[in-house]
Write a structure and sequence with these properties.
The chain is α/β, with parallel strands linked by helices. It contains 10 helices and 9 strands.
Length: 256
């Protein structure tokens, strides 16, 4: 759709140069359509407007992926790992490069427990999607290097801070050879004011084949404990009751 709206803009421009311009209302409408599609592409990465984004897995397998952002943290991440171990579940942790530098042993603990590790940027820059491709590329290189130094393997998965995928983020990720990962459902557990019962309700409603749930194992600024920790065990129990298995994103997206 974005390509179509861009083509429409070219047609409008060519016609105007030829002296047969469209009406002002038509031009304004075409501009609004293009701007709307571009904005939606950034805010809703699962649409895949600027790049292919893994937002869910196959619907014909009883598997889903639990993903955790903004860690690692010595206390909350270890608690998440403990709960996952108790339930025999696997997950994917999108870690910040700066925290991986501070807590490399935690990154190794995640990997040793059988989980996957992806990049979530070096710092949690909320304006990430507005940065240039050069800025994002430098940030990804720094974060990836920190994670590789901690676990000995170069990460291949990338979820941008805040999750927005702009053209610059898409270009930098492609050049770095990173797979962009979104989500099919957000639990909104990372907010300081989030209530665990609402997080549980959102997560329960999203438990289905191929789902990718967005959770947090740490707070962005480490100033609170994500609300999901209080109900993670219950989420895993309900997952099992529905006959589902929690796997890493890599396993979820593998061919049948």
């Amino acid at each position: 759709m974005l390509w179509l709206s861009s083509l429409l803009g070219i047609v409008v421009g060519v016609r105007a140069l030829g002296g047969a311009a469209f009406s002002l209302s038509f031009c304004l409408g075409a501009f609004a359509l293009h701007a709307g599609l571009a904005t939606a592409g950034v805010l809703l990465p699962s649409l895949g407007v600027f790049a292919d984004v893994v937002a869910r897995g196959p619907s014909d397998r009883p598997e889903l992926a639990l993903t955790f952002d903004d860690g690692p943290h010595p206390n909350s991440t270890r608690r998440v790992l403990e709960i996952l171990r108790e339930h025999g579940a696997r997950a994917t942790f999108f870690v910040l490069g700066s925290k991986a530098e501070r807590f490399p042993e935690l990154v190794r603990e995640i990997v040793a427990a059988g989980h996957a590790v992806g990049v979530h940027g070096h710092e949690h820059d909320r304006l990430y999607a507005l940065r240039s491709a050069r800025f994002v590329a430098r940030d990804l290189e720094r974060a990836s290097a920190a994670i590789e130094a901690a676990m000995g393997v170069r990460p291949t998965l990338f979820r941008p801070p805040v999750g927005f995928v702009s053209p610059s983020v898409a270009v930098a990720a492609e050049r770095a050879g990173l797979v962009l990962v979104g989500w099919s459902a957000r639990t909104l557990d990372g907010r300081g004011a989030s209530r665990s019962e609402r997080v549980l309700a959102r997560a329960t409603a999203a438990l289905e084949n191929g789902a990718i749930l967005l959770l947090h194992d740490a707070a962005e600024r480490d100033d609170h404990v994500p609300a999901s920790l209080a109900v993670l065990g219950t989420i895993l129990e309900r997952l099992r009751e529905r006959g589902l298995r929690a796997v890493t994103v890599d396993v979820l997206r593998r061919p049948v």
